Every structure is written in C-alpha cells, then in structure tokens.
Amino acid sequence: MVRNRAIQAVQALLMCIAALVIWGCAASGADNSRLTAGDIIDTAGIVRQSLAESQFLSWRTMQGPPIRLGLAEPTNRSGERLAASDRWAIAGLVVYDRGIQDLLASRNVRLYLPEETLRALEQSGGDGTRPMGITLDPPEYILRTEIRSIARQGSLASTVSDQRLDVYLIDYRITGMNSSEVAWSKAVELARQASGTVAD
User: Fold this and answer.
1) Positive or negative, the Cα torsion across 18, 21, 27, 30?
2) Are 7 and 121 in contact, with CB atoms under 8 Å apart?
3) How far, in Å, are 45, 69, 100, 117 from residue 96 at the CA level?
4) Where are the beta strands (DSSP E) in the chain?
5) What confidence score (pLDDT) does residue 106 get?
6) Which residue has the higher pLDDT, 161 or 111?
7) In this predicted model, which residue has the larger pLDDT, 39 or 172?
C-alpha cells in the first residue's frame, strides 16, 4: 500500500510535468519543427513496450536476487532547447508507468530514489514508511537517456524555407552503474516537418 502511494505520488508529479510540457508545446504546429508533448508521450509508450519485452527483464523472477535500477538525468545534445521538466518527462514517463512498475516488481527490480525524492513523496501524502520496491541503496544499473539531432534540411540560399525536416534520436540505455556494459537499449527516431523560417 505504501509503495503504491509512493508510485502514485511520482505518477502525479509526472502528470504535472506532462501538463507543463503540453502547455509549453501548445504553440508548436506547422510553422516549427520542435518536439511536442505528443512526441514525448508516444516515445515513452514505444520504449516501455521494448523494455517489457527485453531479455534484461524476461529471465528475471520474483524469487531471483533483487537488482537496483536508477534513473540518470537525461542529456540533451540536440539543437532543441529543452527545460529540465521536459528532459525528466522523457525518461520518467517510461519507468514510472504503472504497468512497468508492476512488471519491475514481479522481476524483483527495485527502483532507486534519492532521499530528496522520497522526502518530496512524504510531503505529498506518504506516512514516512520506506516504500516497498523502492531503495535508497546505490543502484547497480542506471537508465540513461540522450536526445540528439540527426539532420536538418532547409533552404540553403535563404532564411525562408517552405518545407524543412528536423530529425531527433532519443536513445535509452540501461547500463552497469560503474561499467560500460549495456544491458538493454532502445532508440526512437522522430522526424518533425514544418514550414516557415529556418530560425523557427
């Protein structure tokens, strides 16, 4: 029950983040090629399915030894200016999904939350009991997310382009905390077409 409250609190926080993303992306339309809230939410769904079907989880059981999974702050290497809330939503909407949470619990995978996050959860309605399935112990694996721009096509002769294409690659990897071992990975490519000025 406590674990459920903790997860629900995090999910509520992510819903607020998603709402902010939607608000911030509301102006995105045919005149620019920026990432939208729909891009972030759709990408998270694709990645959740890949993680659910991965060998990283498929062979694990509740009776097996527990492992600890952490979440690194996503890295933005694209030309898009992304707020911290946008970056965290790109990663957080994957691991804090209720279906993924149930799957992780059934595979004895414990999600690492830092103390400051747990304190925020307590302030949002927890009873001070350490949630089951959540650990403060240092993670053995960590989910890393990187956002990159792949290509940009537009007018070379003018600042005005009738059509242009921005291509983004969002790369998710679970790696060993202190090694280069890649336990699971999934890359999602997004192409955003727009018209207007190249500066949009």
Assistant:
1) negative
2) no
3) 12, 12, 7, 13
4) 67-71, 75-77, 109-112, 134-135, 141-153, 160-176, 182-197
5) 93
6) 111
7) 172
